[in-house]
Amino acid sequence: MTWVPPCKLLYLYSWFMSMKGFLGLLLFLTTSGSLHSETVLVSILNKHSCSAILISPDKGSYRLEADGAELFVLEKNELLYVSMKGEELFLSKLSGSPGIFSSVSLVSAEGRGGFTVRSVVPLTQEKYYYGNLNLSVDYERIKMINAVDEDIYLAGVVEAESGTSSTEMFYKAHSIICRTYLYNNLDRHMDEGFHLCDEVHCQVYKGRLTSSGIINDAVSSTSGKVITYGNGDLITAAFHSNCGGQTVNSQDIWLISRPYLRSVHDPYCRYGKNAKWKLNVGLDEWRSYLRSMGISGSHNLSDPSIFCFSQQSRSVFYRIENSSIPLRQIRSDWNLKSAFFEIDIAESGQEVIIRGKGYGHGAGLCQEGAMEMAARGYNFLDILQFYYTDISVRDIDSLVY
Ligand SMILES: [Zn+2]
Ligand SMILES: [Zn+2]
Question: Which of 81, 82, 192, 303 is 20 to 30 A from 128 in CA distance terms?
Answer without folding.
Answer: 192
